[in-house]
Design a protein that fits this description.
Chains A, B, C, D: Residues 2-129 form the Gfo/Idh/MocA-like oxidoreductase N-terminal domain. Chains A, B, C, D: This is Gfo/Idh/MocA family oxidoreductase. Chains A, B, C, D: InterPro entries: Gfo/Idh/MocA-like_OxRdtase_N, Gfo/Idh/MocA_oxidoreduct, GFO_IDH_MocA-like_dom, NAD(P)-bd_dom_sf. Chains A, B, C, D: It comes from Candidatus Marimicrobium litorale. Four copies of one chain form a homotetramer. Chain A has two domains: 2-129 and 333-339, Rossmann fold, CATH 3.40.50.720; 135-311 and 355-369, Dihydrodipicolinate Reductase, domain 2 (2-Layer Sandwich), CATH 3.30.360. In chain A, 36% of the residues lie in helices and 20% in strands. Chain A has helices at 11-21, 37-46, 58-67, 86-95, 110-123, 137-147, 176-181, 184-187, 192-208, 301-305, 317-337, 351-369; strands at 2-5, 30-32, 76-80, 99-102, 127-129, 154-162, 212-220, 231-238, 243-249, 260-265, 269-273, 279-283, 289-293, 375-376. Chain A has a nine-stranded mixed β-sheet. A five-stranded parallel β-sheet of chain A has the order 2-1-3-4-5, sandwiched between helices. In chain A, strand 3 (76-80), helix 4 (86-95) and strand 4 (99-102) form a beta-alpha-beta unit. In chain A, helix 1 (11-21) packs across helix 11 (317-337), helix 4 runs parallel beside helix 5 (110-123) and helix 6 (137-147) crosses helix 9. Chain A starts with a strand and ends with a strand. In chain A, 62% of the residues are buried. Chains in contact: A-B, A-C, A-D, B-C, B-D, C-D. Strand 13 (289-293) of chain B pairs antiparallel with strand 13 of chain D.
Chain lengths: 380, 380, 380, 380
């Protein structure tokens, strides 16, 4: 694995590295950690990389790695830059013949996402997108239970993602993440929807197996001087007629990372909360609610394969992240060994989720600005 | 106290009676418990009332009680009928000179509520409305903390009220409450918003001290054959610029009575959930969240006066309800003794909340049917 | 009902009165609220009692009430004094022909309890003991589930009761309850075990249906100058071979009223916590834990009869207390009408629990002082 | 790092490997994964080790690795065998000049632990012991808060560790861990105390900074045919006069891995539960309880250095484990670079905890068999 972005002080780059390292199946072999070449070099050294595999720009990395012997060169690129670089780096990697694992949102805008999808299809290479929350074992179980019809036809979805870290002008401090996430030239058209609303939308679609078909939204920039939203609420309609509510916030003071999803069908309901990720509630009309737990013997194969320790040994965010990396690595291995991957390894978000996500972000912003109530997702 | 409605088998009538009895300050002295006179008589006998104080219709009750000596006759009427009778009974009571304590929603429609308000004003009598959830000590504390500015200017409100009891066709069973709540001739224009959405709206306004100024709503009748909504979601805007999300449901299978409210201001946030009513969370950007508990020595005077037992002795729904009755009774006592009531006793919803509630219900229904996004509350 | 004790400022007297009033089946008709006659008179007036039914000592109350017409006089005495008066008042009441509902612990010492039991048996009158926690619907459900064998043979019981209110020298303040609970002449041989350890022991025996047969204990007075324990831990052995741990504390700073019980059998486990009283956990080896809730349609008849509101409307301490009073009143009614009480109404602690409790307290104190490990309960 | 034990199908070996890999600072370079050489070879191959670095016995591993160039050979041995092999492997490693990271309990019996301590001291090499739970950030915070005097003098400790996985005869199945943990020739004198009770005792001492000085214990083998305890309860006295309760169980059906600790001092209390590891409660007599969270900005340096992601991104068991490995690796690095380690890196259990643990296990067993109540820890 080679990494683009994620130099000193970056949060998400370190998470990607830990997630990739956890299972001993993926080795970081090179990186372009920063466009500041000294910074990139220092980061690479701290990661025990040989200096010649530490690059000061991603294009050099693609060029050089391409020329290394197959056994030696990186097999895929992990992209952990600000949003506006996701597509350029992914494009360069695909052109150079490398698979891509990208942080979200996939691209700067929808148009880029569509172009990227075309390129992925054409290249025949693998593309993964780190919608981390789908990596949790019990999120997978939730999806499987609904797919198996245990809740009956889905009627109502409540998905939320409150955070509080941008409740004041963090962008005026040395909080680098705050700076770029609120900068339209780096983040795109949205801060709150682009960073976390898109996770919520993805989670709702992943768990229910439904597609959002229409939305009505109200986005706000509460903190003075912001050009991008730091809060938003969206009414949802799904393609089967289900209704939903999605709300996300970066100014809900005191909230940490509270993404959660509740789904109600004709026969039952379920609830999952990321801050208590090893618990999944199933709720029934006429019998006690059931508390499912990560690694419980009663879970399905997908959830079971996604846990690393026995029940009661909490698994967290890094493990969920690692599940995406592990699936992605297994797909690469299968591809390279000419076999087919374990079907369980296919459960990793990819280029279709990339397009859906960018659609969601753009439509949320457009709908918020409109006096018309409902806005339809186009078929892309 | 005399009661109208609440005969054998009714749920809310019994709650009103327990709430009124709890503190030993209010005595049930008469009632018209059912329009079926035998049923009313049986109910009265079970409640140890003398037969001559058990009436078969509310008008007779008003007439007869009016003619009893002041010391003996009821002082106020408690109305616990289906919605369509609230206003007629309240009107009759006020005309006969009795104070009124009414279940919610206050009336069948907004027009009735406006007429009732005029009558209350004109009569000089007291009118209380049992928005029960404002009776909880920690809901009062939440209001006081916000009023004192501890959270700073309010930005975001999330209020929800999921229930699951109408997820199938209960109205085809002998569930009397289901029958009338889904019958437009008894319930009014809404089931879900009329029964529980109105509680949520009231809770949001009570806790924040703000008024909802605009809304965008999407109501649904999920269960086949229903004429009224059994689910709904509403985007809110408040008069200070705050935004909110309100959602309520009667088809969220497995949910019990999950009304909750979360409020975020510039400086802090708070959270209260009715199913864990003795806990109030205060959340801060830079220090640990605090868990306030009913009867904690650090609470303000209103919350303190509203608790009956020491910390750790759970107080519940009936106690919250009893707080409304106690305040209302104290107001009556003060009125009759010519004094002014304890200021803490004034914290009981009344005729203004009645009008706000009916506005909310009607606007939620109208907005849902409209293609226009935002709908303003008129000044009433 | 007549009350002895519970004058102005007392905590538990007010709770008894609310519990008795809640269902509208018990009327407070007289009282000797304090040995200070002015204080008693003021208390009686505040409770709207006629002056002639407010007594300055309990013996006068017994004498006078005995002479009133049967229809008019009190039917039972509620005893809410400090411990040392429980037995004298109960004895006087029984001699005067009145049933007795007593706060716990039943008496000052075991010898008194045995004498009281003899008198109760001889008198043919009813005796109830307010081990409140057995009044919660889900505690009853727990007992029923175990009795039905759902957990298999019981192996392990963990019962605890942490409080923090005596962590400093409250007995030097005007906290009257602290003063008498730490005074050996009023409280008996124990503070912590006598006040709350005895509740824990009762709860363990009630829920499991087992008897404690042996114990090993370690009691401590942490706060300087105390003559009685303010903390203790006890190893338990039950008559079926099960083992247990009981610990209670009045110096666990920050704890409120945390009585809880966990029971494990060969087939399953259960857990109930008083501060979340409307939830009962059933735990299984091979399927998800189940969360039972007060008023759930799946509960047994005893729990069902003990709930007053639908699921999700929290019931608390006063309601649990009221369940004991309601059962006791139903027993009296049945007795006086010559019938047999509803079997469900028999579920109220009585004179046998009184004796068990006093044995527990005395043995806990004796065992703590001993170098010998195990101490057996004598058959009493 | 070289590993002894932890071949195919073993649980804890995989955890050690993930923990070591997480931060990219430790590389697995060799192993003797099983005494079955084919099994060891298969395990090594699955871990991508070169065949010549996969050994079929630990002695060969020590011998061969010793002869490799310093740059190439393992720097320390990770021991993940059943208990009876811990000391022999550690001894061989130390004799061969390798540092040792061992699973717990440290040895088969106390005598071995004392001998091992002598050897460690003599060798000047590093010895780490994976009492995992001390690796959690908030356990470290708890320790720091108590050390800083925030709770005042400690009075009461409640530590518990319920599990349910041995509630039936798992030792008759192919559950290898159950087989050896219940076999006195592999596990030592205790199953429940040796496997998990020792964690609880360590946690109590780590968090409070106190030493247990006396104990009274009652251990039981509930499941028929067992030679070792599967449950136990222990009364504790600490060297400062504090009292405690420790209970642990392998037959508490439905419990997962419920280690928790509560500590009460003169000024405040705290609570931490491993199944919700990112929350630490501080409890106060006169103000609301505080909910501290992993990575909260208000935490001390030790807890802060032990977290890898922002608040609200759950960290779990593997991360806690990785903290021990990271500290141990930092100590080795400092040693080898001739510097002193970061003081924060010293927070890893070592040979003193090894001796304390074996004392605890042996004393718990001896005390349980005795009729004498209290048993003192000897100075070792």
């Amino acid at each position: 694995m080679g990494m683009v972005g994620g130099g000193e002080g970056a949060f998400i780059g370190a998470v990607h590295r830990m997630a990739a390292a956890l299972d001993g199946e993926i080795e970081l072999v090179c990186g372009a950690f920063s466009s500041d070449s000294q910074r990139s070099a220092r980061s690479g050294a701290a990661l025990h990389l040989p200096p010649q595999r530490v690059y000061s720009d991603y294009q050099s990395m693609m060029n050089n790695e391409q020329q290394l012997p197959v056994q030696e060169r990186m097999q895929f690129v992990s992209i952990v830059t600000p949003n506006h670089l996701h597509a350029p780096v992914a494009t360069a990697a695909l052109h150079a013949g490398f698979h891509v694992m990208s942080d979200k949102p996939a691209t700067f805008d929808l148009q880029e996402a569509l172009a990227l999808r075309a390129l992925v299809r054409e290249s025949g290479l693998l593309y993964g997108l780190t919608h981390t929350y789908t990596g949790y074992p019990l999120v997978k179980e939730a999806r499987e239970r609904i797919a198996a019809g245990e809740l009956g036809a889905i009627r109502k979805v409540v998905v939320e993602y409150p955070q509080g870290w941008l409740a004041d002008r963090q962008e005026d401090t040395d909080n680098k993440q705050a700076v770029w996430r609120l900068d339209p030239t780096q983040a795109g058209v949205s801060s709150c929807m682009g960073d976390i609303g898109v996770h919520a939308a993805n989670l709702a679609e992943y768990v229910t197996g439904l597609n959002i078909s229409e939305m009505c939204s109200d986005l706000t920039a509460f903190v003075e001087g912001r050009k991008l939203d730091d809060d938003g609420a969206v009414l949802l309609r799904f393609d089967n007629g289900a209704r939903g509510v999605l709300h996300a916030s970066q100014v809900s003071v005191g909230e940490e990372n509270g993404i959660s999803v509740r789904v109600y069908g004709e026969l039952g309901g379920l609830e999952w909360r990321q801050e208590d990720p090893n618990t999944l509630w199933l709720k029934w009309p006429d019998r006690p609610a059931e508390r499912l737990r990560t690694a419980g013997g009663y879970l399905g194969p997908l959830a079971t394969a996604s846990a690393r320790t026995p029940m009661g040994h909490p698994e967290g965010y890094i493990e969920a992240f690692a599940n995406l990396y592990r699936s992605f690595a297994q797909q690469i291995q299968a591809r390279e060994s000419g076999g087919s991957p374990d079907p369980l390894a296919l459960d990793c978000p990819g280029i279709e989720e990339a397009v859906r996500g960018m659609q969601f972000i753009e439509l949320a912003v457009a709908a918020s600005a409109s006096d018309v109530k409902w806005h339809r997702f186009d078929k892309q």
